[in-house]
Design brief:
heterodimer, A: alpha/beta, Glutaredoxin, Rossmann fold, Ubiquitin-like (UB roll), 5-stranded mixed sheet, 24 helices, 15% strand, globular
């Protein structure tokens, strides 16, 4: 009896290894796949039957017999027929959870390498044109058109060029990169090989965060196994050292070069002077992994789905306090409310949803009143937020949004590389402001001391901490000014985007900041 | 005149592409080279966009976020330092929005900065203070109860500057200067975010770190975080005078920043073409010797060297000098006296000393310390190319593709040029770094240092240079890697053919000489191929080439190699001697050699002699005079009785100290003109106190033939500039000189020297500097020589047969000693030992390989006896793998060691340049200083006594 059990890190965390061992002990032929991407049914076991792969989940090691005789209570039927999966448009994640990630024959049998073969029959310019036509935009969060980036590298004078994959997936609540690399590593390799062909690069790096040991092992094994296929293009994995900021592309390049991971000023663009000063394509895992589909199915097929200028699909990651957490790949345009309520099933706690944060720790918080927002780069930007890496974290009504604003500043302070002033000093000052606001909200108002008042007092006590106005209003004003400095003054998105969660919390949930009435809500 | 800093345009000039763009900044239209930053463009227009992390000595960084501007049609607020200008761009540098953002950033800065401006060392010279004013910051609403980096302890370990982390704004300018300008990579930012701080090495203080104290970080620091101790102590300067450093042959120009007659600091001058705004620990900081208590300020005489010195008036000293010289000449003949010019004095002073000797003494007994350093360069390059000097300017190294360093240790000896070289060796903006070949018995820093690694290091046995260079030539010729077109056009083909036949002999092959040099043949072959085929090949060499019995042969072998590969006559190539002393090139140019007038014209040449005779109104000797070693020989023979020594310490610097001492002791009148009672003065009868480079006007000529002004910033403490003293002596001898200013001396030099015909002070003021030849044929001077053809006509290939030195190792002296110097000290150390530079190198140490040390039972720091056929001394051992087994190394900076007691009389066959670099020695454990060292110390003490002045006066 052939069974399929995920080897994905999330599945393993939920006990998939024990389940797999139990099935192996029972004499089953266990194939370890990637994850299908719905964690409420993990550990998931799929049985190969005449009617197809029948899923059972979640199951434990003690459930082997019940699964094998088909009586287990968590019999799901065909997994792809579950509503969570049936409604998806799996372009990038088509193979994930289905195949043995390191089996070249599985990959080939599921239309692997078709994109690369198509690309190799084309000129580099034709490949770049195809990516342009597909409308693919950077899936790391910036949404920059991938084809245009590739064109810049293609047009750069010949010499050493590099393909760098940003797999330093550090946003809280995101896991799509990891799932793909663990579940379909050849797809990423194929995408990078196509990119190499398109721009004339000879070598590539995959920069993976150290917190992803399974990814690192899987990618290394996959690179070795497929070396003969992508040759003469060569690839290697670089392991990150734990800094969030190294997910910023230029800091990532510095890190690969062996330097302290610090953000570079642009220009020069990495496309012209990137890794080791050479023209470099640096793309997120999801951008590169979307490319094989675009070449194999044609760019029009990819561009056919989507919304506005956001074409193709986005692997949305539902996390936090949500009933059905997991990976949901869908064309752009689905609303935030559909994702949270229809797909995610509301909160896991059963309490009302109060806020969702979209785009990782630097994304804005949205209240349910904004749930009709379509998932689209422009629509989110206009609403004062961002899609980022498409991580959605759900919070119920027990959340304290002032604490969440403080957390955003604290996160920025902890992860700031220290290069630019707004982020280096501003984030720490932001935490201090939030402490004053929370302190003032929770306690009796503090009066301004008399020590520093008056002309002489001001001169002599100009440095006294009690001279500053610590009222909630003054601190909120200072917080907005600081957010402005950080947003427009920071060198990279870390400092530049920290104001999103802070200001959205302040704007949409003013009552948590000690304001008397929820201003925005009242206005509506 | 009030003090101002040099203009800082914020970012370096754009790399020249030939294209330019036109844009509008604040309504003003401007056309500038493509690649220029908006910040620089605004500055060139006379504006100044607020900034803190940008300075034009390092690449833009974009971290402070003060320099934001608005660009029409672009989102956000791009940083003007990192944004290049573009065609049609419309930039606004001051808007309400920008004011708001800048004030926001500044408010953050000041929320973590002390407010002790009035008592701060950088008060009045602080960019943070200035920019806080520029952005109109009026309040810091964050208070001071939050997190802070203030209150951290200062690091005051460096003798010249303090590091105060409390005042650091983490702009990284120091870190970047250390990397980009100096190339040491000693500094880093440790931790991240709010805890980011500057750190020297890891967990070290500045003194203990890899910091070489070049001062680039101090210069780059916008606040008081890195500040000169002297500024903290004295306050800010109020005027600045540009002058030239008196240390090595790089010839860095500095702004001497003054308040009254007090020198507050020396800051490298950005417009200086030799140093391009960089400095080393010596020129930047080690000038305190000028006011050192050891300096002698009054003339002194004595009848015999066993007596104490007696202070006398200038009149008496000068009269006594003249009468003694005349007395000796009357008694022993015209040729019984002579003089030595100084490579540390100005061109004008050197010219006057040789003029005094030729015109006043009536003989050609003049020599200079170049005798003991680069005389083979003069000989070798004039034979092969036709000029006695290097072929390039320093900027040329930036165009080199392969750099061959032989017998030179530039990171210690020529640190500012070494930084340029290292900059070229590192990849830059996607351009690969130049490849490096090092031929040196020691593993010098260049062989392996941060971001620099030699492609090939050929650690040859000392004394085998010629064999090695011939083997390289063997590969070039036999593998047909030579540049036939170049040779046919520019050289004599028959001479080439003879030479090629010679070097092709199997006995010259890398394989054949491997047992001799100890270097693997395949490494030699690979190095030869790289030099011949790697693009622009530039050779840089030092005293490791010249100070050998075959020094001149080695120089010619180098010239042969450069000609054979076509690496002469354009930017990026050439043969470049790294000259030792500040004005050693100039001293040679000025006619300091016994056989040559200024401009390298032989004394036997009647036309030249007539020119000088007509100008000076005397008949000149047509016979070459005595070289230094010959003078000393003649003295011990009894025929040479009087010597005038200006600014040189031959007892310590010349080889075989015993022989030098015997020669000096045999003379009746030794006149020493110097700042200090140096070792030679122990044997002197008249001491004329000298002046420092800060106290006089003149010019120095550096290793790239660059003539630069030395400017007086304070009155001579001793009363006279050195040129005035020589004039007093000359006039006391009846010569009737009437120079009022050194510019008149230079006018005379120009009139009498064709290569200097265009050199006048007004030109030097206008141009900053001139590289000779500067005359009608080359009105703007000559950065690169031999363009289109060699000065001598056809380049000459000279067959250089390897002749092993007579100085051989054997059972009694099994090791080879080679000598050199260290970064923090200069030459005999007379100046640097009288500064805080002793913090880095308080004594000479003997470098010995662990296996040789082990064989002798020596531990690191043990006292050892170092003995040669010539003598012995003791010093402490330093066990290191920098030297190969069988080779030991030491420096000669400290008179207590007297390393030249060990070195021998062997010298270059052509020029008598001593063979300092090869001495067979034995090393053994010792209890402490040798008898000779103790006797010498006693004698020096005796000799330096100065009789107390009579109370009655």
């Amino acid at each position: 009896m052939k069974v399929f059990i995920s080897r994905d890190m999330a599945s393993v965390a939920l006990g998939a290894d024990e389940v797999a061992r139990a099935f192996a002990d029972a004499g089953c032929d266990v194939v370890r796949t990637g994850s299908r991407g719905l964690f409420s049914i993990e550990p998931l076991v799929e049985l190969e039957t005449d009617e197809g792969r029948i899923g059972f989940g979640p199951v434990g090691p003690q459930d082997v017999a019940a699964v094998l005789d088909g009586t287990h209570i968590n019999r799901l039927g065909k997994v792809e027929d579950l509503p969570f999966f049936a409604s998806q448009q799996r372009f990038t994640f088509a193979r994930c959870g289905v195949i043995d990630p390191l089996s070249l024959s599985d990959y080939a049998a599921h239309r692997g390498w078709e994109g690369l073969e198509t690309a190799r029959r084309q000129t580099p310019q034709q490949v770049v044109d195809a990516v342009k036509v597909s409308g693919l935009r950077g899936r790391g969060g910036a949404g920059f058109p991938t084809g245009i980036k590739w064109q810049t590298v293609l047009d750069a004078p010949a010499g050493d060029k590099y393909i760098v994959c940003n797999a330093d997936e550090g946003d809280s609540g995101t896991f799509a990169d990891r799932m793909l690399m663990e579940g379909d590593p050849f797809c990423l390799i194929e995408g990078m090989a196509i990119a190499a062909h398109a721009v004339g690069a000879g070598h590539g790096y995959i920069y993976i965060r150290s917190e992803y040991p399974f990814c690192i092992a899987t990618m290394r094994a996959a690179i070795e196994a497929s070396a003969h296929i992508v040759s003469p293009f060569t690839l290697e994995v670089r392991e990150g050292a734990g800094a969030y900021v190294c997910g910023e592309e230029t800091a990532l390049l510095d890190s690969i070069e062996g330097k302290r991971g610090q953000v570079r000023a642009k220009p020069p663009l990495p496309a012209l002077q990137g890794l080791f000063g050479q023209p470099t394509v640096i793309n997120n895992v999801l951008s590169l992994a979307a490319v094989p589909f675009i070449l194999a199915e044609g760019p029009e097929a990819y561009a056919a789905v989507g919304f506005g200028r956001s074409r193709g699909t986005m692997p949305v990651q539902l996390a936090g306090n949500v009933q059905h957490g997991g990976l949901y790949e869908i064309g752009f345009g689905i609303t935030l409310g559909e994702l949270v309520n229809a797909i995610g099933g509301g909160t896991a706690s059963g309490r009302p949803v109060r806020a969702v944060q979209v785009g990782g720790p630097l994304g804005a918080y949205f209240p349910p009143s904004m749930f009709d927002l379509p998932f689209d780069y422009e629509a989110f930007a206009q609403a004062g937020g961002l899609i980022g890496h498409a991580g959605i974290t759900v919070f119920d009504d027990s959340v304290d949004m002032a604490h969440m604003a403080r957390f955003a500043m604290e996160f920025c302070a902890a992860e700031s590389c220290g290069k630019c002033t707004p982020c280096r000093i501003g984030s720490t000052r932001g935490v201090e402001i939030m402490d004053r606001i929370i302190g003032a909200r929770d306690a009796a108002p503090v009066t301004v001391s008399e020590a520093g008042s008056g002309y002489l007092g001001k001169a002599l006590y100009s440095r006294a901490p009690d001279r500053i106005d610590v009222s909630i209003d003054a601190q909120a004003t200072l917080l907005r000014d600081l957010a402005d400095t950080m947003k427009y003054g920071s060198l990279c998105a870390l400092g530049g985007f920290t104001p999103y969660p802070v200001l959205s919390a302040l704007d949409y949930f003013p009552e948590d900041f000690g304001a008397n009435a929820p201003v925005k809500e009242a206005a509506e | 005149m009030t003090y101002t800093r040099e203009t800082d345009h914020g970012t370096p000039p754009a790399l020249a592409t030939g294209k330019s763009v036109t844009l509008t900044i604040d309504g003003q239209s401007v056309t500038l080279p493509e690649g220029t930053s908006i910040m620089r463009a605004a500055s060139l227009l006379g504006g100044s966009i607020p900034r803190l992390c940008a300075t034009d000595s390092v690449e833009s960084f974009g971290s402070c976020r003060l320099c934001l501007v608005e660009v029409e049609g672009r989102n956000g607020y791009p940083a003007s330092c990192t944004t290049p200008v573009a065609e049609g761009m419309v930039v606004r540098t001051q808007t309400d929005r920008l004011k708001q953002l800048r004030r926001g950033v500044m408010e953050l800065y000041i929320s973590d900065h002390p407010l002790d401006c009035l008592t701060c060392g950088a008060n009045g010279d602080c960019e943070l203070q200035e920019q806080a004013g520029a952005v109109g910051l009026r309040d810091v609403r964050y208070g001071y109860d939050g997190a802070t980096n203030m209150g951290q302890a200062k690091d005051q370990s460096n003798p010249y500057f303090d590091f105060d982390p409390s005042k650091c704004i983490v702009c990284s300018r120091c870190v970047r200067a250390c990397e980009e300008v100096q190339g040491t990579f000693a500094l880093t930012i440790e931790n991240k975010g709010f805890d980011s701080k500057v750190a020297p090495s890891q967990g070290e203080d500045f003194l203990g770190s890899e910091c070489v104290s070049c001062g680039a970080c101090v210069q780059a620091c916008p606040t008081a975080s890195l500040i000169e101790k002297k500024v903290v102590e004295s306050g800010t300067p109020d005027r600045a005078v540009v002058t030239t450093c008196a240390y090595c042959g790089v010839g860095c120009t500095f702004r001497a920043e003054m308040r009254g007659e007090e020198l507050v600091r020396m800051v490298p001058w950005k417009d200086g073409k030799a140093n391009r705004g960089h400095s080393c620990v010596k020129g930047r900081f080690a000038w305190g010797y000028a006011q050192h208590q050891d300096r002698i300020l009054n003339p002194m005489i004595r009848a015999s060297v066993s007596e104490p010195w007696r202070e006398v008036s200038w009149d008496e000293a000068i009269a006594h000098t003249a009468s003694e010289f005349r007395r000796i000449q009357a008694k022993y003949g015209t040729r019984s006296i002579g003089g030595i010019t100084s490579s540390r004095c100005t061109n004008e002073e050197t010219f006057l000393v040789q003029k005094l000797i030729r015109q006043g003494f009536g003989n050609n007994n003049v020599d200079t310390c170049a005798r003991v350093c680069h005389s083979p360069t003069g000989y070798g390059l004039s034979q092969t190319f036709g000029t006695s000097a290097g072929t390039q300017d320093f900027d040329s190294v930036m165009q080199a593709d392969v750099i061959l360093v032989i017998g030179a240790n530039p990171t210690d000896g020529h640190p500012v040029f070494a930084s340029r070289m290292k900059k070229r060796l590192r990849p830059n903006n996607g351009k690969p770094g130049a490849k490096l070949i090092v031929i040196d018995p020691r593993r010098t820093d260049l062989v392996q240092s941060p971001h620099v690694a030699a492609e090939h290091h050929l650690p040859l046995r000392p004394g085998t240079n010629v064999a090695m260079l011939t083997a390289l030539a063997h590969v070039v010729v036999t593998e047909k890697l030579y540049d036939e077109t170049f040779i046919r056009e520019r050289c004599d083909w028959d001479e080439f053919a003879d030479w090629a036949e010679f070097v092709s002999q199997p006995a010259r092959s890398p394989e054949a000489i491997e047992p001799l040099t100890g270097v693997k043949a395949e490494d030699v072959r690979a190095a030869a191929r790289l030099y011949a085929t790697g693009g622009n090949g530039a050779i840089y060499y030092g005293l490791g080439v010249t100070e050998h019995s075959q020094g001149s042969s080695t120089v010619m072998a180098i010239a042969n190699l450069a000609m054979a590969t076509g690496n002469v006559g354009r930017e990026g190539v050439g043969v470049n001697p790294l000259r030792g002393q500040n004005n050693v090139q100039g001293a040679c140019d000025m006619g300091s050699f016994p056989h040559e007038f200024s401009g390298y014209r032989h004394v036997s040449d009647t036309a030249t002699r007539t020119l000088f005779e007509r100008a000076w109104g005397v008949t000149l000797d047509s016979e070459p005079g005595l070289r230094i070693p010959n003078m000393l020989d003649a003295a011990t023979d009894g025929s040479f009785k009087g010597l005038f020594v200006q600014g040189e310490d031959i007892l310590q610097s010349d080889p075989n100290t015993h022989h030098v001492a015997a020669g000096l002791a045999a003379m009746e009148c030794v006149v020493v003109q110097d700042l200090f009672l140096n070792e030679t003065a122990n044997y002197a009868h008249i001491f004329l106190p000298g002046s420092t480079f800060l106290e006089k006007d003149g010019t120095f000529t550096n290793a790239e033939r660059r003539i630069q002004r030395v400017r007086k910033v304070m009155a001579p403490l001793n009363g006279y500039a050195d040129w005035e003293i020589v004039q007093l002596v000359a006039n006391a001898m009846g010569l009737d000189w009437t120079y009022d200013h050194p510019s008149q001396i230079m006018d005379e030099i120009a009139a009498l020297t064709p290569t200097f015909a265009g050199v006048h002070y007004d030109r030097l003021e206008a141009e900053g500097s001139l590289q000779w030849p500067a005359n009608d044929a080359a009105p703007d001077g000559t950065p690169t020589m031999h363009i289109g053809g060699f000065v001598r006509g056809k380049g000459k290939f000279v067959v250089t047969d390897y002749v092993p030195t007579d100085e051989k190792t054997g059972p009694r002296f099994p090791l080879l000693l080679t000598t050199g110097r260290i970064l923090s000290h200069y030459n005999v150390g007379a100046q640097t030992r009288r500064t805080a530079n002793t913090a880095w190198h308080p004594e000479d140490r003997l470098e010995i390989h662990p296996s040789d040390a082990d064989n002798r039972g020596l531990k690191d720091g043990d006292w050892v006896t170092l003995r040669s056929r010539a003598g012995e001394t003791t010093l402490r051992a330093l066990i290191t793998e920098r030297v190969a087994p069988g080779v030991v190394y030491t420096t000669f900076h400290h008179p207590e060691t007297q390393a030249n007691v060990i070195t021998t009389d062997f010298s270059d066959w052509a020029t008598n340049c001593p063979e300092y670099k090869v001495t067979a020695v034995q090393v053994m454990a010792s209890n402490g200083p040798s008898d000779w060292q103790q006797d010498y110390a006693d004698q020096a003490r005796q000799s330096r006594r100065i009789a107390p002045l009579e109370a009655a006066e």
